[in-house]
Backbone:
């Protein structure tokens, strides 16, 4: 069974919010739109977003590191938001594992958002229904788009390729290999939600060089000079006497 | 969590209605066992059922204010296999219908024995429907409370105590109302309802205080380390991705000061438990029973509003970990 997901590489995310804006741009005018805003050009603007980028500082000065943390629906394999929905508006697709909301069935009771420990569902203040990341379901299967563009808008927008998209159930896919080989992890594993989206940790490349590796043991410079003269009657393989 | 008044009124009002019905039903059982004098079918049981249905209807009305799309509310009965909310949506009208039918049976006095049980006990229609309504009432208590108690991330709610509190606080307020009601209709069962209202209130006090104590010593399962998956003891949030709030900051935070929450807690602990007990005791002793009983109910119900408000602010959602600093 296919499970589409995003892999977010925290090692290369620069926190530019390009994924946030391109997500909003694509989805507000697409199948999942509108993603309405309240007071967009006034005091206290607020609105519906499927994706956010947060920033955390790790450690104490001067030994700090800045981590930019994109946060969107993780499309859990065992999504706690789905069974609590009283109308069946919240569902997980059998075919590709995407968790979606049917806006025509949603009654806006917000119970699903209570049941999500990650807080990635947002109630649209104007549409009065619950909204969430669709993994750009209207885009990834669009036959009119070139194959290379059949990816979520956030993935295409990322300038550092910090976002990757693929099937995490296929062990040979690029995303599965990245999870395997680069320590991909899930958020809040303690709740057993088994998120499909994985994060790749910050990685530092260390190269261990030993002292003796800096000094050549077989340094020809050290070997130069005359070897002791062998006895005249000794047989040698090489023409050692030529140096004497 | 943000305390929404629609849900506060829903849960407290239906609690009163359910408790009042349970009081009427237990009154009928007691009088059937010849432990209490029999009451008039019309002026006591029918009118009492009407009052109980009125409270349930008021609760149902309040619940619609919680919905973004109330016109689609009928859809919410479809996923009863998995959703406690859906189960509540089915059980609430069922309970109302059964209690209404119970009232109708009493109003028209369809109380001819249908059959005789164990050669001594006459079983009539009101007893059968009353028993069904009683089971439905308990099912409704369980559904309502399990909506909260089934959310394992909200550790403050994820406990059998949540269910016990909903049942006990609902029945306590219902029995208090039954005492008021029996004073008004001059039924000679005031003492019975006052006694049980006090017993239920005292029991509810024990379980509610136990819940407060339990919630004071909860260790949150999630923390910033597991939330973003970085194993470092010192992590500070520098940005939450927006400046002026979102659904995440509105729905899951109560935005109240600790002083206010503490005050509301103390207020409900006084209003729900000791004051109604005192008022009921004085009322039962014969001193201005009508006014004191009404006062007891009003005080207890306002206390329950504060209790439910506090219940919501008690719940600490793990998503709040991601929203600790604006910038």
Residues:
């Amino acid at each position: 069974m296919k499970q589409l997901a995003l892999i977010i590489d925290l090692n290369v995310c620069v926190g530019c919010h390009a994924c946030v804006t391109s997500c909003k741009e694509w989805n507000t005018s697409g199948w999942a739109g509108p993603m309405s805003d309240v007071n967009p050009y006034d005091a206290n603007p607020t609105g519906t977003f499927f994706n956010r980028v947060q920033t955390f500082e790790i450690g104490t000065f001067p030994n700090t590191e800045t981590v930019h943390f994109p946060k969107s629906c993780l499309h859990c394999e065992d999504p706690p938001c789905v069974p609590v929905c009283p109308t069946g508006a919240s569902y997980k697709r059998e075919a590709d594992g995407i968790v979606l909301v049917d806006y025509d069935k949603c009654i806006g009771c917000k119970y699903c958002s209570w049941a999500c420990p990650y807080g990635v569902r947002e109630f649209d203040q104007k549409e009065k229904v619950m909204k969430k990341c669709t993994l750009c379901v209207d885009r990834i299967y669009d036959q009119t788009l070139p194959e290379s563009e059949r990816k979520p808008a956030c993935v295409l927008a990322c300038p550092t390729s910090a976002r990757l998209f693929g099937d995490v159930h296929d062990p040979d896919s690029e995303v599965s290999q990245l999870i395997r080989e680069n320590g991909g992890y899930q958020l809040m594993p303690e709740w057993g939600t088994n998120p499909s989206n994985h994060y790749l940790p910050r990685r530092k490349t260390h190269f261990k060089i030993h002292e003796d590796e800096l000094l050549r043991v077989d340094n020809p410079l050290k070997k130069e000079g005359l070897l002791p003269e062998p006895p005249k009657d000794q047989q040698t393989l090489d023409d050692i006497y030529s140096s004497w | 969590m943000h305390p929404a008044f629609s849900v506060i009124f829903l849960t407290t009002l239906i609690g009163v209605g359910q408790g009042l019905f349970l009081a009427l039903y237990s009154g009928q059982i007691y009088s059937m066992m010849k432990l209490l004098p029999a009451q008039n079918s019309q002026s006591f049981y029918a009118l009492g059922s009407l009052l109980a249905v009125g409270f349930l209807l008021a609760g149902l009305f309040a619940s619609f204010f919680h919905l973004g799309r109330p016109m689609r509310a009928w859809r919410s009965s479809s996923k009863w296999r998995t959703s406690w909310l859906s189960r509540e949506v089915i059980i609430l009208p069922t309970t109302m219908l059964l209690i209404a039918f119970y009232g109708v049976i009493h109003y028209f006095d369809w109380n001819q024995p249908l059959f005789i049980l164990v050669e001594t006990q006459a079983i009539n229609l009101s007893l059968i429907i009353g028993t069904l309504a009683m089971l439905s009432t308990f099912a409704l208590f369980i559904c309502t409370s399990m909506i909260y108690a089934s959310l394992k991330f909200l550790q403050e709610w994820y406990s059998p105590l949540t269910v016990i509190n909903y049942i006990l606080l609902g029945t306590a307020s219902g029995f208090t109302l039954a005492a008021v009601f029996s004073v008004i209709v001059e039924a000679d069962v005031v003492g019975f309802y006052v006694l049980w209202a006090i017993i239920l209130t005292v029991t509810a006090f024990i379980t509610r205080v136990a819940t407060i104590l339990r919630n004071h010593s909860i260790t949150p399962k999630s923390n910033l380390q597991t939330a973003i998956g970085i194993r470092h003891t010192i992590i500070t949030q520098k940005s939450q991705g927006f400046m002026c709030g979102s659904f995440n900051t509105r729905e899951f935070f109560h935005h109240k000061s600790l002083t206010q929450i503490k005050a509301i807690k103390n207020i409900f602990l006084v209003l729900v438990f000791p004051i109604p007990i005192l008022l009921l005791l004085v009322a039962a002793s014969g001193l201005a029973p009508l006014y004191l009983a009404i006062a007891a109910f009003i005080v207890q119900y306002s206390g329950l509003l504060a209790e439910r408000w506090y219940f919501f602010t008690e719940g600490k959602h793990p998503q709040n970990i991601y929203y600790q600093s604006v910038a």
